[in-house]
Amino acid sequence: MDLVVNGDRHTLEMDPRTTLLDALREHLGLTGAKKGCDHGQCGACTVLLEGRRVNSCLILAVTLDGASVTTVEGLAHPVQEKFLEHDGFQCGYCTPGQICSSVGMLDEALSDDDPPELSDAEIRERMSGNLCRCGAYPNIVRAIREVAAR
């Protein structure tokens, strides 16, 4: 099966039960996406699949032949700078998923014909699938809001 990850094409042979998360981490050595709950509930494994955010622990890699995946390692986005600037992380475990989800969420929201105003409440709602055990939410929201305001 072929998978384009961060712009590079990879031909992978693996067990058909392998999740996208495990393919990224174990077969390609891309450890940015984290295995948190392994049930799609925490968002630590969030990556962009064809530009849309997904929980990579829930998707079988074999179903993605020819698809394009972007991980945190392949991003170069202003939200990353703002996470640093606003201290949008503490332990950092959820940060790659938070960043990928932020990028996907901003693309979703700002590509609408009539983009919504991304208030703090709207950002929190749109990011509700990504959990942070440390409680860095106010700083994460601040970082996202600043990028959205551009």
TrEMBL record:
What keywords appear on the UniProt entry? Iron, Metal-binding, Oxidoreductase
Matching entries from Pfam families are given as: Fer2, Fer2_2
Q: Where is the 2Fe-2S ferredoxin-type domain?
A: 1-75
Gene3D superfamilies in the record, alphabetically?
3.10.20.30, [2Fe-2S]-binding domain
Name of the protein this chain belongs to: 2Fe-2S iron-sulfur cluster binding domain-containing protein
Query: Whose protein is this, by species?
Result: Paractinoplanes lichenicola
